[in-house]
Design a protein that fits this description.
It is a single chain. The chain is built from 8 helices and 15 strands. It has helices spanning about 20-25, 25-45, 110-115, 120-145, 170-185, 200-205, 210-215, 290-295; strands at about 50-55, 60-65, 90-95, 100-105, 160, 195-200, 220, 225-230, 235-240, 245, 260, 265-270, 275-285, 295-310, 315-320. It has a 7-stranded mixed sheet, with helices on both faces. It has a 4-stranded mixed sheet with strand order 1-13-14-4, with helices on both faces. Strands 2-3 form a two-stranded antiparallel ribbon. The chain is globular, with a radius of gyration of 26 Å. The protein has a single domain, classed as Alpha-Beta Complex (phage-related protein like fold), CATH 3.90.1690. By secondary structure, the chain is an alpha+beta fold.
């Protein structure tokens, strides 16, 4: 039998009482932290499901091949078929940016004094911080794609629609959506997975536009809910992550995200317009016992290693308030 000095400890953080190391003793605690970060990252993202994502296991970059169209011809009886097409080929390379992190240190004494649990709040904010960084870079890439020249010589590049009244006129924005669809059709962009991303102000301008919501005009949305589902067949997305600044880039970025976005009102694109290369997916770390003894606290770190870049400029259109 144990003596009075041998108190039996319960391990609420251990999985099925599998103990013996710090990781085992805190296995369930770490998963709670991980779950909060992952959930916040997924909920805050807008652009993630709207573009191509490729995962690599090693290396610093990934190449995306691009090919142009073939032509058809009539066969002349008796002549050999030796190949008449010389299909143009090009590529786009997306490089992995430096490791992006969101971290927080929690001092044990501060946590003990506090009257509410901050770990859940902090872990959620770490996820949101990474999601904002992910989305804002993709927003810039989407606009830069619309400004880019063709990947293959002879193929079309991106397009800009310009009108100084776009930010304040819902009908003009609706007309722009139809213009976008015409541009995509003329460039043979696949008809599915076409999107239009706007800031909240312009989104609600569309929501107040009668023609957009009028069922007799084939409208899709609800005035009562302030929602717009589709305009001209484009799926409408509302986002605060569309760029509106003059961005010069920052240290650690290995792809070009710089540009003057002060005139950007909205951006339309097909899912294949731009992409992400993922080397290290969203991962979560929490310090061990040695760190805790030395610093009397815990460090929580959320991180990923990815890069974003242009793939098919012909599949993107910027809607701008710049003078035409």
């Amino acid at each position: 039998m144990p003596s009075y000095a041998d108190a039996i400890r319960t391990y609420p953080g251990a999985l099925n009482n599998d103990i013996g190391t710090y990781e085992k003793d805190n296995a369930l605690f770490l998963k709670v932290f991980a779950g909060e970060v992952l959930t916040a990252f997924e909920e805050t993202n807008v652009f993630k499901p709207l573009h191509l994502v490729r995962t690599i296991t090693h290396g610093k970059s990934a190449s995306f091949p691009a090919t142009w169209k073939a032509t058809a011809r009539y066969h002349t009886p008796g002549t050999p078929i030796l190949g008449s097409n010389q299909i143009k080929t090009g590529e786009r390379v997306i490089t992995i940016d430096d490791l992006l992190i969101a971290d927080v240190f929690i001092y044990n004494l501060d946590e003990a004094k506090n009257h509410y649990d901050v770990r859940q709040i902090y872990s959620t904010e770490l996820g949101r911080a990474l999601a904002r960084a992910f989305d804002t870079r993709l927003g810039r890439v989407a606009v830069l794609t619309a400004r880019a020249s063709a990947t293959i010589t002879g193929a079309p590049g991106g397009t800009q629609l310009k009108n100084p009244n776009y930010p304040t006129d819902g009908e003009l924005l609706a007309n722009a959506a139809f213009n976008v669809q015409q541009i995509f059709d003329e460039k043979d962009v696949p008809e599915n997975d076409r999107y239009l991303v706007l800031r909240p102000a312009q989104y609600y301008l569309l929501a107040q536009t009668t023609k957009v919501l009028n069922r007799d005009w084939g409208g899709s949305g609800a005035y009562a809910d302030g929602s717009v589902l589709k305009v001209a067949g484009l799926t409408i997305i509302k986002s605060n992550h569309l760029p509106n600044d003059n961005y010069a880039g920052t240290e650690g970025e290995r792809n070009n995200y710089a540009g003057d976005f002060t005139n950007t009102v909205a951006v339309a694109f097909h899912k294949s317009a731009f992409g992400t290369v993922k080397l290290m997916d969203l991962a979560l770390e929490q310090t061990g016992q040695d760190f805790r003894v030395m610093y009397q606290g815990d460090m929580m770190v959320a991180k990923y290693a990815m890069g974003h870049g242009i793939l098919r400029p012909e599949c993107a259109v910027e809607i701008s308030k710049a003078a035409s």
